[in-house]
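In the design runs reported in the main text, the only information available to the sequence generator was the tokenized backbone. The following block is the verbatim input for one such run; it is reproduced so that readers can re-run the procedure and compare outputs position by position.
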């Protein structure tokens, strides 16, 4: 099911589709020296530009390669989408901004035509023994992850939308489920590598999934009328397995400005949260038949 604007990432899946592997699908980027050349599949829903989640993914990759190691947990990633990123070569620069005994902070920028079009920062904290006892947290009820790996087309993201039916979260396979006005849940499984020839790391998967917070929390009865300006991802641990779940918690908006929060999960349970800020996008057109 192909749709226009942000609805293009919300695909149902067929019962008889053949299984796919990441190697069978083209990567978002091809590396050429210091350049990363985006393929057409990297295009986002808001015109001739690279998707914000792909921007976050390539910045997260650079931060992990610059500052990550086995002893440090990547705990926070903040991505600022400063300008549209054209479907042209980009360069990524990353540095360690602060190195402490238990804390490491790294910064990265995405450069196109000698202009910074996006930036990101990441916080890494040293892992240690978990203290005894329990700390209260809001419980999250999440539908089980789908067992089928791929839908029928080559959409850049495979996302299963969910709705609230009789009080029980369950999978929704039609776009109309997203117009119900009820709670939103999603399981995301990346369909392709970020950079050709490289497997996706758990942190890169999380960086890509974090941007889904915006459509998940800002989608309403009239569709998606907000376009995100940034997102922040927090992780208490790295995700395990190919699926990352998101459960929308809050949406608040006034005067055309919105903020939304979602819990992130894998099949073992919650692993962190994400927040996305956004501003109204007057050009939204509700897909026909939705």
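Verbatim output:
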């Amino acid at each position: 099911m192909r749709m226009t604007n942000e609805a293009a990432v919300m695909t149902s899946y067929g019962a008889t589709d053949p299984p796919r592997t990441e190697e069978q699908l083209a990567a978002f980027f091809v590396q050429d020296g210091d350049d990363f050349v985006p393929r057409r599949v990297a295009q986002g829903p808001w015109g001739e530009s690279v998707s914000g989640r792909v921007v976050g993914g390539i910045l997260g990759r650079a931060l992990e390669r610059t500052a990550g190691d086995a002893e440090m947990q990547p705990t926070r990633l903040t991505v600022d989408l400063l300008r549209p990123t054209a479907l042209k070569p980009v360069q990524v620069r990353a540095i360690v901004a602060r190195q402490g005994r238990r804390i490491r902070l790294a910064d990265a920028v995405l450069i196109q035509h000698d202009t910074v079009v996006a930036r990101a920062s990441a916080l890494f904290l040293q892992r240690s023994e978990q203290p005894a006892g329990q700390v209260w947290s809001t419980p999250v009820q999440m539908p089980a992850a789908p067992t089928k790996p791929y839908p029928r087309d080559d959409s850049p993201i495979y996302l299963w939308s969910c709705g609230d039916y009789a009080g029980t979260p369950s999978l929704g396979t039609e776009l109309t489920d997203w117009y119900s006005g009820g709670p939103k849940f999603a399981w995301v499984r990346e369909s392709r590598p970020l950079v050709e020839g490289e497997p996706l790391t758990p942190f890169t998967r999380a960086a890509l999934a974090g941007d889904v917070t915006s459509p998940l929390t800002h989608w309403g009865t009239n569709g998606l009328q907000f376009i995100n300006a940034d997102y922040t991802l927090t992780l208490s641990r790295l995700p395990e397995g190919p699926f990352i779940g998101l459960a929308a918690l809050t949406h608040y908006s006034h005067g055309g400005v919105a903020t939304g929060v979602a819990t992130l999960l894998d099949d073992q349970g919650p692993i962190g949260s994400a927040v996305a800020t956004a501003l109204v996008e007057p050009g939204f057109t509700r897909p026909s038949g939705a």
